Amino acid sequence: MPCTCGNWRRWIRPLVATVYLVGLLVAVPLCVWELQKLEVGVHTKAWFIAGIFLLMTIPISLWGILQHLVHYTQPELQKPIIRILWMVPIYSLDSWIALKYPNIAIYVDTCRECYEAYVIYNFMVFLSNYLTNRYPNLVLIIEAKDQQRHLPPLCCCPPWAMGEVLLFRCKLGVLQYTVVRPFTTITALICELIGVYDEGNFSFKNAWTYLVFINNISQLFAMYCLVLFYKVLREELNPIRPVGKFLCVKMVVFVSFW
């Protein structure tokens, strides 16, 4: 009997849709029962509304991911795109769990924040792979361009040499965030366990203030390197319109954080 696994592209979408509908039929009654059981306050209402958006977010995100998997014709570009798309269900599920179980929010947030760094890394991979595939002589193209000076607030720093040096340093500037963010996240988890984290309280006596400062500096420098990278290669990157894509990623991070 021939194996049907090779035809997974035909049945994967109906299967996922069926699983989602079954999950919906189970989850909605449970949520309603939970609301009836508990005294409905502001927190419970927020959790219920978040659950509604979660149920809307997951199928939309999974459908986009499945479309890429079914039409997997450009692995170098689609692989980082799929990883980026997973950010939405991960963030929405994290927010919903944190609302329902605030005591374990620090643990699920640890996974979410590590994935944020991974997404920034994959965005850079996406841009690099696109440029490498389309422009094999990318370094020579950059070398032929006019010298790009640093942008504010680093405009007083010596410019990076056009070519391989600029390309390497822009990538390194983005990659440093993928190291710093998991490190500070794990540090935050340890500080929470020993009782010195004190999230949300700006004070020099807690760990949260210092970790937020380190995270922001690291993230801002990563963003700066991405902007500099785009400014140098704006013409070459225009066909894929990276600005809108990047703003979508950052809006997910910004809105979920605040």
Tell me what you see in this structure.
Keywords: Membrane, Transmembrane, Transmembrane helix. It is found in: Membrane. This is Transmembrane protein 184C. It is a multi-pass membrane protein. It holds the Pfam family Solute_trans_a. By secondary structure, this protein is an all-alpha fold. The chain has two domains: 6-73; 96-256, no CATH class. It is 76% helix and 0% strand. It is built from ten helices and no strands. α4 packs parallel to α10 (242-257). The longest helix has 31 residues, at 164-194. The mean pLDDT is 84.
List the helices and strands and how they pair.
Blueprint: H1 8-37, H2 42-70, H3 75-85, H4 87-100, H5 105-134, H6 138-143, H7 164-194, H8 207-232, H9 234-237, H10 242-257
Features:
258 residues; 2 domains
Radius of gyration (Å)? 22 Å
Major β-sheet, in short?
A: none
In round numbers, the mean pLDDT is: 84
Task: Specify the overall morphology.
Answer: flat
Spell out the helices and strands N to C: HHHHHHHHHH
Question: What is shown here, in short?
Answer:
The chain is built from ten helices and no strands. The protein is mainly α. The longest helix has 31 residues.
